[in-house]
């Protein structure tokens, strides 16, 4: 009897242990099932690596506000650049390319917020931007903090690759010194008196400082420097001071929709003997520069100026995608930034680690709509071609057209190293 009781107890204990093990296995399976990512859950780095993975790029641009047209040109150029560089696959080294665009609103504090979101929430591998030098300068430290490559386009302030430089910054945009060399080459010479007019922020300050040095090196004298509120619409007081200084030329550094061209015409400055010179702006701004036909200056880009296969592709595809419109001033810059990223990732076989990319990008050359660009090893500024031009009226075109006088080579426009 005791033996039977012992057997019953033993059997009962085995059932309990068996049930407990069964429940434990079910719990582990349930836990594992919960950890599996759904279609809307971001996949882990290990999983994406096994499947080929992704490259995420965060683009900061002024998609609204005064520099909206610049931001949209950059965006369109960047999208076309990725298509061109990847042969239409939108992949590099077996990894899919994903792009996230953020509007900085041309406000440095917003730019920092959006860049932080891209780095922390979207976990981007690259930053690109921005339309404003002020926005860009505010974001530069984040690229170094997170050790992510930032391609600067189209901001031009010298300080970006100068006093505020860090090794994670590479710039496809030209800088103020390159503009200055091109601008000075057009008008400066011994005994020439020049006034400068620019917006009162980093873009204007750096532009004037660089132009002044380049012009004085060629023997010219800067007789007055006028800086205006970039948000202003009335520049009469600034322009009157320049008229009173009686220069031979007024060199204008400007960006944005609220340009001074109409007031310059209204004040008849050229009739007063003051010749106007500037960098040829984008097409909307050219459309109000009718009074400046005959002006000699420089251009960063106009679609008929470069003569190369990449630009031919850009012009053809841009017309096809955007209702016959030609690429504008900052479209090729966006394209160049995209090409640079794909070129670098091809060299690292898809490794987006910032420190590894620095090694291959320093001194790297790549073909763009403006011809060959090279990231100078010392400051990561892209050396590039600019254009000496004259504004001319052409049949069938509603605005003054920048006509090539001569190309200014990358060697000729190479800026000083300031970092």
Question: Your description of this structure?
Answer:
The longest helix is centred in the first third of the chain and has 34 residues, at 2-35. The protein is built from 13 helices and 16 strands. The chain has 2 domains: 51-174 and 305-384, Response regulator (Rossmann fold, 3-Layer(aba) Sandwich), CATH 3.40.50; 177-299 and 388-408, Response regulator (Rossmann fold, 3-Layer(aba) Sandwich), CATH 3.40.50.2300. It has 419 residues and is α/β, with parallel strands linked by helices. It is globular, with a radius of gyration of 28 Å. Strands 8-7-9-10-11-15-16 form a 7-stranded mixed sheet, with helices on both faces. It has a 6-stranded mixed sheet with strand order 2-3-1-4-5-6, sandwiched between helices. It has a 3-stranded antiparallel sheet with strand order 12-13-14, covered by helices on one side. Residues 1-50 have low confidence and may be disordered. It is 41% helix and 20% strand. The chain starts with a helix and ends in an 11-residue tail after the last strand. It has helices spanning 2-35, 45-50, 68-85, 108-120, 133-146, 176-187, 202-217, 236-245, 261-266, 283-286, 309-321, 331-347, 354-361, and strands at 54-61, 91-92, 95-103, 126-128, 149-152, 169-171, 193-199, 221-228, 249-252, 275-280, 296-299, 365-368, 371-375, 382-383, 386-392, 401-408.
Q: Please provide the ordered H/E string of secondary-structure elements.
A: HHEHEEHEHEEHEHEHEHEHEHHHEEEEE
- Percent helix among the residues? 40-55%
How many individual helices?
A: 13
Please state how the strands of the largest beta sheet are arranged side by side.
8-7-9-10-11-15-16
């Amino acid at each position: 009897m005791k033996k039977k009781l012992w057997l019953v107890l033993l059997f009962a204990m085995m059932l309990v242990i068996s049930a407990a093990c069964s429940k434990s296995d079910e719990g582990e399976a349930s836990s594992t099932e919960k950890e599996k990512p759904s279609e809307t859950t971001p996949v882990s780095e290990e999983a994406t690596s096994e499947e080929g993975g992704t490259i995420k790029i965060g683009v900061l641009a002024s998609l609204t506000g005064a520099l909206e047209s610049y931001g949209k040109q950059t965006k369109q150029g960047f999208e076309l650049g990725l298509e061109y560089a990847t042969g239409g696959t939108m992949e590099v080294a077996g990894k899919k390319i994903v792009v996230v665009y953020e509007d900085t609103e041309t406000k440095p504090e917003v730019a920092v917020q959006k860049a932080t979101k891209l780095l922390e929430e979207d976990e981007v591998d690259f930053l690109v931007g921005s339309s404003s030098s002020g926005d860009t300068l505010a974001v530069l430290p984040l690229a170094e903090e997170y050790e992510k490559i930032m391609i600067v386009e189209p901001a031009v302030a010298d300080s970006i690759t100068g006093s505020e430089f860090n090794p994670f910054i590479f710039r496809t945009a030209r800088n103020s010194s390159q503009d200055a060399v091109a601008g000075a080459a057009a008008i400066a010479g011994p005994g020439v008196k020049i006034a400068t007019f620019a917006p009162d922020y980093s873009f204007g300050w750096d532009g004037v400082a660089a132009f002044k040095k380049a012009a004085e090196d060629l023997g010219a004298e800067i007789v007055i420097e006028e800086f205006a509120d970039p948000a202003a619409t009335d520049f009469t007081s600034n322009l009157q001071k320049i008229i009173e200084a009686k220069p031979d030329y007024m060199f204008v550094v400007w960006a944005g929709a609220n340009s001074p061209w109409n007031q310059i015409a209204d004040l008849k400055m050229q009739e007063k003997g003051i010749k106007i010179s500037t960098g040829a702006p984008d097409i909307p701004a050219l459309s109000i520069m009718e009074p400046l036909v005959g002006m000699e200056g420089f251009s960063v880009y106009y679609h008929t100026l470069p003569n190369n296969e990449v630009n031919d592709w850009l012009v053809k595809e841009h017309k096809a995608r955007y209702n016959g419109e030609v690429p504008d001033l900052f479209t090729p810059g966006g394209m160049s930034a995209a090409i640079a990223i794909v070129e670098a990732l091809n060299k690292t076989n898809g490794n987006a680690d910032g420190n590894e990319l620095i090694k291959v990008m320093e001194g790297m050359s790549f073909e763009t709509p403006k011809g060959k660009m090279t990231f100078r090893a010392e400051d990561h500024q892209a050396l590039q071609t600019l254009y000496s031009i004259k504004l001319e009226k052409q049949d069938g075109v509603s605005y003054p057209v920048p006509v090539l006088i001569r190309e200014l080579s990358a060697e000729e426009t190479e800026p000083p190293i300031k970092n």
